[in-house]
Amino acid sequence: MKKLRFLVSLTTNDNDYQIEQAQSAEEAARKFGVELRVIYADNDAITQSTQLLKAIQAEEAHRPDAIIFEPVGGTALPQVARAAASSGIGWAVLNRDASYIPELRKSSSAPVFVLTSDHLEIGRIQGRQIATLVPRGGSILCIQGPAENSAAKDRTAGRQETKPANVHPTLLRGQWTEESSQKAVRSWLKLTTSRKAAMDLVAAQDDSMAIGARKAFEELPEETEKERWLSLPFLGCDGLPKTGQAWVKSGLLAATIFVPPNTGQAIEMFVDAFQRGKQPPERALTVPVSIPSLSELKRR
User: Fold this and answer.
1) Does the residue 294 lie in any domain?
2) Which domain holds residue 271?
3) Which member of 10, 88, 125, 256 has the lowest number of beta carbons within 10 Å of its beta carbon?
């Protein structure tokens, strides 16, 4: 069997989860003896679409056997997916559901599937963490992912399901990066009403945005005000060992949610599918976990 060639397209190289996704792909490529190229879209859907079409339209000798990608924008690039399928290239969508997948599987000779984190469950876990840390209710500041992003929407919906009714969120938007969150919180703090707001907790939809929020509060000139904000519990998601989990241990975050990287699993599913000549399952899920556990969080 010829050496398989994979292209992994990630959203940005300025996010701890995406960096871990790249490492997970590299480890799997070494393990299964496949060729790998990782590209980043700089959080731009048009850039991502252009990069992928260029790879699909390359000469056959340079074309990937399969594309694994984490979408930037609101769509999971259906036209690009069809172009890949018609060229006999495998297609896997990470961390996003794509409505075109069942239809594409019928027409494609190559493996096609979705491998996603359970974003609703991630949101539900964060809602339970909030209930544990703010048992008597109150106000919280939430930094969410992009408005058109289905992962951000599902995490919000899940949080709403389990968050107590007497906890009132103020919502800000980031781009899954520390810098974007820092800017959003910095702008919000310029409002007189915001500076005086009595918040009980800060919850971000990923760890890097939680740290970005902390950095914005660290910039406050008045010491007592700065201390008031920084003494609040901060929550994140992704929970990778070197970042989120380390930040929980050091006290920068009160809790996070471990979301296992899944590029390596996608490569494994492709290798298996190519070897057996069969389609893998249409949709596979990774399982998120609260760090620390909710019972441990209660004791703190």
Assistant:
1) no
2) 5-117+260-286
3) 88
Cis? peptide before 292, omega within 30° of 0: yes
Residue 50 to residue 54: CA distance in whole angstroms: 6
Q: Are residues 29 and 87 in the same domain?
A: yes
Strand, coil or helix: 264: helix
Helices (H), 72-118: 78-86, 101-107
143 and 234 in a single domain? The answer is yes
pLDDT digits (tens, 9 = 90+) for 218-251: 999 999 999 999 999 999 999 999 999 999 999 9
First CA to last CA distance, the chain: 55
| pLDDT tens digits, 11-34 | 999 888 999 999 999 999 999 999
Q: What is the domain count for the chain? A: 2
Q: Which residue has the tokens 């075109």?
A: 100
pTM of the predicted structure, to 2 decimals: 0.85
Read out DSSP for 221-260? SSHHHHHHHHTS-EE-SB--TTTHHHHHHHTS-SBEEE--
